[in-house]
Specification:
4 helices, single chain
Length: about 120
């Protein structure tokens, strides 16, 4: 067994090159165990710091609920396929626009092929 604390840093490489594979592997295992312990300790310390930086969750105000997004466009071939006009265009919208229709042709309640979808009753 080699005591690394007694070795000078300059002679370290020379000593490693003269060691057998088994000696080097033994050093590798010791270093791996030391690194694992130090990394785990540092991780715990960082998690404690992170938890101390986060605000308490009990003091948060409730966010205002957003109103439901009403669909503005419907597929003339399948009225159950609707789109609000937000986000990525659905495939059916892209196909209808490519076939020559406009967004106005797909809009709900503006003389389009599709009548407005019935609204759900809240009572």
């Amino acid at each position: 067994m080699i005591r690394m604390a007694n070795l000078a840093p300059v002679n370290l490489l020379a000593n490693y090159s003269s060691m057998s594979v088994n000696e080097l592997w033994e050093i590798h295992e010791k270093i791996s165990k030391l690194l694992e312990a130090k990394i785990l300790a540092e991780k715990k310390m960082l998690e404690r710091r992170l938890n101390s930086l986060q605000p308490a969750k009990t003091d948060r105000k409730a966010h205002r609920p957003y109103p439901p997004v009403v669909p503005k466009f419907a597929n003339p071939d399948d009225p159950s396929q609707v789109w609000s006009g937000r986000g990525k265009r659905p495939q059916w919208v892209t196909e209808k626009l490519a076939s020559g229709l406009t967004l106005e042709d797909l809009s709900i309640g503006r003389g389009s092929f599709v009548a407005a979808m019935p609204e759900e009753d809240d009572s």
